[in-house]
Fold:
Amino acid sequence: MVNSNGHLLAPEQAHVSISNRAYNYGDGLFETIKAVNGKLFFWEDHYFRLMSSMRIMRMEIPMDFTMEFLEAEILKTLEANNLIQKSARVRVQIDRGEGGLYLPLENTEIRFLIKVTELDSPFYTIDDAQTNLVDIYKDFYVAPGLLSGLKSNNKALNVMGSIYAKENGYNNCLLVNTNKNVIEALNGNLFLVKGDRIKTPPLTDGCLKGVMRKQILELLLEDLNYITEEESISPFELQKADELFITNVVQGIVPITQYRKKSYQTDFSKGLIKKLNVKIRLA
Structure:
């Protein structure tokens, strides 16, 4: 079952109008959330990012779009799919409804759609046997700005990068901004470990304002053994790093095992993911 603006429907009944603005113009936003046993991980961060993104997109936020209302709608959807006591991926999509060309009609209605799918693991793990080969995707560049940091429906670059990765035997790709700095992976934020220094690109470089990125930064700043910096990462730094890893809310931490001819350790990532799971249990 999917939740279409508060109504639970079978997926085949949840039709999208040919006039839907998210379909026609990418005029929409989404959040991907991990839920375990009815608990939405980092829900407050997701909610406030969504509200901030709606303001940037100049969407008129409905009065009933409170944190409590949307959480209740998500839980209702999980329960309808028998996932309230399991681990699940939740996608909340917001769009501006129907009508208009580039300029929306004045009476367009903000709508939401909630979809849920089951996940295997309730907590975050790293599979030692899993390889994660990456390359830099250079066909298109990200222009830094407020829009580049949004989880909008306009993900053409990520789609093209995913096709490139598949065609060339990679598991993922790293994206580059117009200043030729590496900013993130196709599906998450990037962290680089070199000695006692850890770097992640600043938001001003155009990377996603990731919810998991925020959680990892908070954990790293508690560790006095490392110096954590939000600084630009050049492609030349990648091959000098001890470790590279990607973060997102569904997988947690995903170590990069190889970039070109350079192979990477995963020890730091494994230690960090244990701290992340402890943080979740205590929350």
